[in-house]
Write a structure and sequence with these properties.
Membrane topology: Lipid-anchor
Radius of gyration: 20 Å
Structural class: alpha+beta
Strand order of the largest sheet: 2-1-5-3-4
Domain UBL3-like ubiquitin: 6-115
Keywords: Cell membrane, Lipoprotein, Membrane, Palmitate
Distance between the termini: 80 Å
Oligomer: single chain
Subcellular location: Cell membrane
Protein name: Membrane-anchored ubiquitin-fold protein
Number of strands: 5
Largest sheet: 5 strands, mixed
Strand content: 25-35%
Shape: elongated
């Protein structure tokens, strides 16, 4: 019975409403491990898929999960239904463009505009 408690059934809901999973994970698994699973099982026919684990954000019970935490640490008591499947929402950050990267490195310039009527 202790082995069943150490496993969670998780499915990943994509933004278009389709799902990946459900799949069983140990509660000691890290959020980064979940993201690797999403990345590996991402449907190839979908556009704008994640390229790296850093492109993926997992949301559970309204919270964005941190890579360094374990599933057991992130588990919500509201979602803890024995034998139930936990749904985590997947958000993919769009890749930043070269223009965005250059703008981030440039110092902000103060612009002042005066209009005299």
């Amino acid at each position: 019975m202790a082995g069943v408690q150490d496993q969670l059934e998780i499915k990943f809901r994509l933004t278009d409403g389709s799902d990946i999973g459900p799949k069983s994970f140990p509660t000691a698994a890290s959020v980064a491990t979940l993201k690797e699973t999403v990345l590996a099982q991402w449907p190839k026919e979908k556009e704008n898929g994640p390229r790296t684990v850093k492109d993926v954000k997992l949301i559970s019970a309204g919270r964005i999960l941190e890579n360094t935490r374990t599933i057991g640490e992130c588990r919500s008591p509201l979602c803890d239904v024995p034998g139930g499947v936990t749904t985590m929402h997947v958000v993919v950050q769009p890749p930043s463009t070269e223009k965005d990267k250059k703008a981030a490195h440039l110092p902000k310039q103060n612009k002042c505009v005066c209009v005299i009527l």
